[in-house]
Design goal:
Length: about 425
């Protein structure tokens, strides 16, 4: 098997949690054949999947563009539905569909990557009396294409067949990824945020503040391995690679966010950087892999903090350091406005004490927590002043509604700080050597 085949098999195994016996490959190019793994069949036509039953793994290799299911204009709904239905019918529950597609050829990656990710994540159908769809595991760059061809747009989607409960008729979004992409991190929202925070960043203070935060690691070993959780449009990932010489994996659950990061790295060819669209709570990063784990203002989005801390601890090398900044909560009674803000965003805010207790419970040592809310207040005040001063430039790109949303959002946050509701916290700890 080639390295690409090995990467796909590893991801599919991690998603399924077990090994495969019945494997089918759908391939016209014939570049992937999984020799030594296949006991099933290699077929060329989507309709040939008709004969596949109870498969553990179906791999579709470069079929979507070749068969016109994905074009430069976007996705072709009918044929794509047909393909996904064949795949769902052919897989056993818990089986995995791996879809490999090189978005550098015959597609516009900026459109296709988020659109296809959304399509497969929310696709659900009644099949044989069961409401089934795919549990989205990841959409990940293929390493070999990065290193051998400087192609950062060759992807594999890993999707696990699962039975779901039908959603309520009035549900606006289907999954948490769908929620992130349709509410806080729409393309317009991301653009306006980036205008506010500064190029490549969706976090307070932009480039300069991120350097100050990275310096809190206390130094880096040149060439070390870093994981950036919730890496957004990639500013922190590229900074850690370009300034400190680290090899950085950026992960983010928002397809809109990570698409921006990926399209930018494809242009820049920064080969110390790679990305995966995935949920940092459920993705298997492996054991003892990273020297450093970093996260800027992401984990307030995550409900299951214990699962997250467990995953971080497992994937850090012994002696490795984790450093996280996050939106947190203070000691003041919550105002009605703060409650509404928190409910709308589905935030899971913690106090510094809660973070410290959790870190100790999961086995970390040298646990350091720090309240950075005063710094947050300074940054918010200066970013809001910048927006007012440069509004002419802002209106060249965005509307009055977007201006109001940012201006009021920043003003509201300053009020939440005043009431000691909203905090900005830092946490750093080490996995025992
Ligand atoms: N760290 C980036 C920066 O500094 O520019 C982006 C910060 S943005 C405020 C928070 C990011 O966390 C979003 O891009 C969001 O999609 C991501 N996120 C939320 N929940 C996540 C999860 N479970 N796994 C991975 N990323 C997640």
């Amino acid at each position: 098997m080639s390295a690409t085949e090995r990467q796909i098999v590893k991801l599919a195994r991690n998603a399924a949690g077990n090994d495969f016996k019945r494997v089918s490959v759908l391939s016209k190019a014939g570049t992937l054949n999984f020799e030594g793994l296949i006991s099933g069949s290699t077929v060329e036509k989507v309709s040939s999947l008709d004969s596949v039953t109870e498969a553990d793994l179906i791999v579709a290799d470069k079929i979507l563009v070749a068969d016109g299911l994905v074009t430069k204009e976007g996705l072709q709904g009918g044929p794509l539905d047909m393909f996904l239905l064949y795949a769902l019918t052919g897989l056993r529950t818990g089986g995995v569909l791996a879809v490999r597609e090189d978005l550098a050829k015959g597609t516009n990656a900026r459109i296709t990557l988020p659109a296809l990710t959304d399509y497969v994540d929310v696709f659900r159908r009644d099949i044989g009396g069961k409401y089934v769809g795919f549990d989205f595991y990841c959409a990940e760059q293929l390493d070999s294409s990065i290193h051998l061809e400087s192609n950062y747009l060759d992807f594999v989607w890993i999707l696990r067949k699962k039975e779901f409960t039908p959603p309520a008729a009035d549900a606006a979004t289907v999954t948490f990824r769908d929620f992130l992409d349709k509410t806080q991190y729409t393309n317009t929202g991301i653009g306006a945020y980036e205008w506010m925070f500064g190029k490549d960043f969706i976090s307070p203070g932009g480039y300069d503040e991120n350097i100050r935060v990275l310096e809190q690691f206390g130094g880096f070993e040149y060439g070390g391995k870093m994981l950036d959780i919730g890496s957004g449009i990639g500013g922190g990932v590229r900074q850690a690679a370009a300034v400190y010489g680290l090899h950085v994996t950026g992960v983010d659950l928002s397809a809109n966010m990570l698409t921006e990061a990926i399209v930018r790295v494809h242009d820049e060819k920064e080969s110390r950087v790679n990305y995966s669209i995935c949920d940092a709570v459920t993705y298997d990063f492996g054991e003892n892999v990273y020297d450093y784990i970093f996260s800027r203002d992401c984990i307030q989005h995550i409900t299951d903090q214990d699962a997250l801390f467990k995953n971080i601890y497992r994937s850090l090398k012994p002696g490795g350091v984790v450093l996280i900044t996050m939106y947190g909560k203070g000691k003041g009674a919550w105002t009605e406005a703060f409650k509404k803000y928190n409910d709308k965003r589905f935030y899971h805010l913690q106090t510094l004490d809660e973070v410290k207790e959790r870190a100790i419970k999961h086995g970390f040592e040298a646990v350091h927590v720090e309240n950075m809310t005063e710094r947050f207040r300074e940054i918010l005040t200066s970013e809001r002043a910048h927006l007012e001063k440069e509004k002419e430039d802002f209106f060249k790109h965005y509307t009055q509604a977007e201006f109001d949303s940012l201006f009021n959002g920043w003003s509201d946050k300053l009020k939440y700080i005043e009431a000691d509701n909203h905090n900005w916290n830092l946490f750093r700890a080490r996995k025992p050597a």
